[in-house]
Amino acid sequence: MEHDARHNPDDCTACSICTLHCPVAMATLKFRGPKMTGPAYERFRLAGFDDDEALQYCSNCKNCEIACPSGVPVANLNMLARAAYCQKNGHAARDMLTGYCGDLGKLSLPLPAFMLNSSLKNPLIRALLERVGIDRRAPLPSFAPLAQRRRLREKRRAGKARVVLFPGCFTRYYEPQVGLDIIKILEKAGYTVTVPNEFVCCGLPLVTGGLIGAARKRARINSLALKRRAKAGALVITPCPSCALMLRHEYGALFPEEEGLADNGHIVLEAGEFILNLILNGRLSLSKIRSVPEGVFAYHAPCHLRALGTGLPALEILGHVPGLHVENMDAGCCGIAGSYGFKKGKYEIAMRVGSGLFAALKDSGAKLALSECGTCRVQMKHGAGLPTAHPLSLLLDCLG
Amino acid sequence: MTDDTKTCETRVVIIGGGATGAGVARDLSLRGIPCILLEQGDLCAGASARFHGLLHSGARYVVSDPDAARECISENRILRRIAPYCIEETEGWFVLSPEDDPAYAAIWLAACAHCGIEAVAVPLAKALKLEPNLRRDITAAYRVPDSAVDGFRMVRHNAMSARLHGGKIYPYTRVEGISVEQGAVTGVLALDCASGQSFHIGCEYVINASGAWAGQVAALAGLEIGISPDRGLLLAFNHRFIDRVVNRLRKSADGDIFVPHGSITIFGTSSISVDDPNDIRIESKEALRLLEEGEKVFPELRSYRILRAFAGTRPLYSAGEGTGRSATRNFVILDHADEGLAGMATVTGGKFTSFRMMAEKICDLAAKRLGVDVPCRTALEPLIPAHSKELLARAKGVFPLGDSDPALARLGLDLEKTLCAAEAAPWKKTLLCECELVTLAEFETTAADIAGQYARAMGLAAPDQEQKNGEEAIGTPHFAASDEADEKTQEETAQKTRAFYAWTTLNDIRRRTRMGMGTCQGSFCALRATGALAESGILAPLPPQQMLREFLEERWRGIRALLWGKQLREVELERGIYMASLNIDGPGQTDSAKFSAPIQVNAPTLRPDAEDRPLARPSPPDAFHPLPLPPAAAWPWDLDIESGEMSSPPVEGYDVIVVGTGLSGLIAAITAARRGRKTLLLSRGAGALSIGSGGIDLLGYAQGKPVQGDPFAAFAGLAPDHPYALLGPEVVRESLDFIKDLSAASSCPLLQLGGPTGNAWLPTSAGTLKPVWLAGPGMNPAPLRDIRSIAIIGVAGLKDFSPRLLARGLAETKLFAGKQILPALLPVPPPFAEPGGRDLSAFDLARFADSPEGLEWLSRELPKAAHGAQAALLPAILGIRRAAGIQAKLSDATGFPLLETICPPPSITGLRLQIMLRETLRALSVPVFDNIDISGARVEKGRCLWLRTEEKGTERIYPAKSFIIATGGLFSKGISTEPGKAWENIFKLPIPMPKDTEKWSGTFFFGPKPHLFAHMGVAVDKELHPLDPGGERLLDNVFFVGRILAGYDFATEKSGSGVALCTGRFAGARA
Question: What is the value of ipTM here, to two decimals?
Answer without folding.
Answer: 0.94
